[in-house]
Amino acid sequence: MRRTPLLLAVAAMAVGALSCGCTAGDTTLASVGMPAEESSMARTDGMMGATRSGGPSEHLTVTPRQQSYLDALVDSGVHPSDDLMALSIGAYVCQARAAKQSEQAVWDFVLPLVRNDLHDAHSSSMTPEVGDVDAATADYIRIATERLC
Keywords, A to Z (predicted)? Predict the structure, then answer.
């Protein structure tokens, strides 16, 4: 009987580890928007897509597909706080799409990420307007779906 709490704790940790999508490698962004066979090859070949060359203050190296996504965001009026955050949001959208999540589930997950990104991008004491956050969220989801996924 005393083993039940331990068993539940171990099961909860296993579910958490499996559901987070974490891996030992840092190639998640490198494979965003690539067909499955290419993304698995990218992981095994050690290709790095979105990486910082020379440290955090240096240039971010992205694939042409990722650059197209970033350019489309700016063209639509979305100005991310930084490219790596924008790529992370896009990766979340693509992962949700691949997992066949509902539109509402994608929205509910991406909205707080976009809200925080807008707040960071404007770095003012003012909270972004709800309409601005909603519009940016819709743009992030649409553009990630079109350009990355």
Answer: Signal
Give the per-residue pLDDT at 59. Answer: 74
User: Token digits for 95?
Assistant: 């992962």
Contact between 27 and 43 (Cβ < 8 Å): yes
Beta strands in the chain (DSSP E): 51-52, 60-61
Domain residue ranges in the chain: 64-148
What would the two tokens of residue 134 be?
């909603």
Predicted pLDDT at 126 = 74
Query: Residue 144: which region, alpha, beta or left (left: phi > 0; alpha: psi -120 to 50)?
Result: alpha
- Summarised one tens digit per residue, pLDDT across range 44-58 is 332 334 544 444 545
Distances (CA, A) of 130 to 112, 115, 135, 137: 11, 9, 9, 10
113, 95 in Cβ contact below 8 A? no
Contact 63, 51 (CB under 8 A): no
Model confidence over 120-148: pLDDT tens digits? 877 666 777 899 999 999 999 999 999 99
| Residue reference for tokens 């993304």 | 39
